[in-house]
């Protein structure tokens, strides 16, 4: 039996254990502020695998000068990042970080789910649950790729780190904190659900909060009041025009094939406090994309100016300008050098498992790759397929997860043993 056949058999032999591990991960509601439980579980799991582990809370002051630092939205106390490291006896290969984020977005109304979002359920060779695809499945692939290699008793020649981070969905500060603390390597792989494609570019992202104030009243005197919610929709309409404007400009080379690469999403809106009261204040939050090579600070200024210009055309808003604040992501775009060893070896590993040439992905959202790029560490994403990320009925395709685990195992072997 060849080395490669042994590796694939080891992964197949561990498959039931990998599914149980993923179900356990998915049972944790690790939304913003609730990450500690799953992080403790992961750290203990890595200790049982004889990894040297460390965990600590993010120190915002230590990372605040990095260009990809995001503006925190809640305190970092008891919300650790975790890393497990294993150095080889003969350390003459290349080191590797396998990173995943364990934070998930809110499940939303359960009435829209066909299964319980935090009771992972397998149907038709798919596993359903919040965060199962984005991206606890990728974490399972990372860990079980390593476990399969160890099951073969074939030593690696480079250090392997398994990192699990918080706030990939809002700031990216978890990844920055581990890198700042010195947990670096010769390359990094993040198994985000790329549908077996290699991420070669991604857009930058900023988050925006707008608060609009009006004049409240009982609905009986609505003609004497100013409805904050209706005025908020005027600003939302202005942002829709901004979206059309930025997508009508010349596209970045990596996104020329994409019909609509720069998305603006009004993700949250809150206003009013009683059905028959004219709302005196309304707040909405938006996500805005920008191309690689663009400074997010410039986009913040451009968006602010666009909103103010729209308000100056309105009789009420021109004298009662909204409060505009930026929070969370101030994320730069990313472009990968596809001539480097990371791309080549990952592409070869994909072909070894699937028999097909890998496709590239220009991603219209953001991932933690930009943090590694800021530290000069070659990095990309490659992971499984599924559907409904950030939506009800999120699922991962289990055949795809098995393929991903095999590709990552081949990649670890081929990278670390250079």
Automatic annotation (TrEMBL):
<protein>
    <submittedName>
        <fullName>Acetylornithine deacetylase</fullName>
        <ecNumber>3.5.1.16</ecNumber>
    </submittedName>
</protein>
<keyword id="KW-0378">Hydrolase</keyword>
<keyword id="KW-0862">Zinc</keyword>
<comment type="similarity">
    <text>Belongs to the peptidase M20A family.</text>
</comment>
<dbReference type="InterPro" id="IPR010182">
    <property type="entry name" value="ArgE/DapE"/>
</dbReference>
<feature type="domain" description="Peptidase M20 dimerisation">
    <location>
        <begin position="201"/>
        <end position="314"/>
    </location>
</feature>
<dbReference type="InterPro" id="IPR002933">
    <property type="entry name" value="Peptidase_M20"/>
</dbReference>
<dbReference type="InterPro" id="IPR036264">
    <property type="entry name" value="Bact_exopeptidase_dim_dom"/>
</dbReference>
<dbReference type="Pfam" id="PF01546">
    <property type="entry name" value="Peptidase_M20"/>
</dbReference>
<keyword id="KW-0479">Metal-binding</keyword>
<dbReference type="InterPro" id="IPR050072">
    <property type="entry name" value="Peptidase_M20A"/>
</dbReference>
<dbReference type="Pfam" id="PF07687">
    <property type="entry name" value="M20_dimer"/>
</dbReference>
<dbReference type="GO" id="GO:0008777">
    <property type="term" value="F:acetylornithine deacetylase activity"/>
</dbReference>
<dbReference type="InterPro" id="IPR011650">
    <property type="entry name" value="Peptidase_M20_dimer"/>
</dbReference>
<keyword id="KW-0170">Cobalt</keyword>
